[in-house]
Write the C-alpha cells for this entry.
Amino acid sequence: MLTLNPLKNSSWRAALALLLAASVASAAAVAQESSQKGFGSDWQSWKADNSVSDVASLQRGARDFLNYCNACHSLKYIRYSRIGEDLKIPSSLVQQFLVPPDKKATDYIVSSMPQEEAVNWFGKDPPDLSLIVEQLGTDYIYQYLTTFYVDPSRPTGTNNLALATTAMPDVVSQLEGLKRAVFKTVDMNGTKEQVFDHFEPVVPGSLTREQYDDFARDIVNFLDYASEPVQVHRHSLGVWVVLFLLVFTWLAWMLKKEYWKDVH
Ligand code: HEC
C-alpha cells in the first residue's frame, strides 16, 4: 500500500515553495534590471534582422514604402512591374494597389515631389533610396526608423538619435506614437556632456512596439531587396542548388555501391 510520509511530504512542499519564491524573485530581478536598463539605452546594438527570402515581409515592405515613404523618396532604378515579378504579386494587384493612378506599371518608382519644393520645405532633398542599404547598411536604417523622438527645438518637432538634427519629419509617428528622449549628464574628463539614456513613451501610436518594429523591419527588408533585386532570385536558386547536390550525392553513392558489389 502506498503511504505518503507526512514529514517528507511537507518538506517537499517547503522545498517547492522555496524554489518558487526563488524563481519569482529572480524573475522580478530580471524585470527590474531590464526596466532599469531603459527602453532604447542599447539602441546602437539594435539589428534589422531582416531576411530577403521572406517574401511576405517584402510584400508588406513594398506596400508600406509606397504608402509612407514614396511621397518624398524615389527608387529610381526599379519599376512597379519588376516588384510584382520579384515579389510574386499578380499584375492585377500591382496595378490596383501599388501603381498610383497617374502612373503605369512599367514606370520607375519616382516620387512626385518636385526637388526645389523639397529643399524649400525640408532644407534638404530627400535622397533616392535605391542604394541606401549599400551606403548605410540595414541596421542603421532600422535604427534611424526607430529612434525618432520629440524635440520642440527642431523645425519638424522631432529629432533622431541615428541622424542628429535630421531634416526628415517623423512621418510614422501615427503608427509608432511619440516618445521623449531622456538624457543624463556625464563627466567626460572634466567637461560635462549630455548623453542619451532612454526613451519614455509620450503618446501611444496605433501599433504596439513589437508591431512597429515589424513595420520598420519590413521596410528595411524591402529597401535591402531594392538595393539588389537579383538577390531574391539568388536565394531561391540556392535552395535548388543544394537540392541538386543532395540528389547527386545520393546517385553517386548508389553508383559506387553498384560498382563495388561484385568486388567484395
Ligand atoms: C515628408 C518627406 C519624407 C518622407 C515621407 C520620408 N522621408 Fe526619409 N528623408 C526625408 C528627408 C528630407 C531626408 C534627409 C534627411 C537629412 O539628411 O537630414 C530623409 C532621409 C532619409 C534617409 C537617409 C538617412 C541618412 O542617414 O542619410 C532614409 C534611410 C530615409 N529617409 C528613409 C525613409 C523611410 C523608410 C520613409 C518611409 C517610412 C521615409 N524616409 C519617409 C524626407 C522624408
About this structure: Residues 177 and 204 are 4 Å apart (CA to CA). The domain at 42-148+210-243 is CATH 1.10.760.10 (Cytochrome Bc1 Complex; Chain D, domain 2). The longest helix spans residues 6-37.
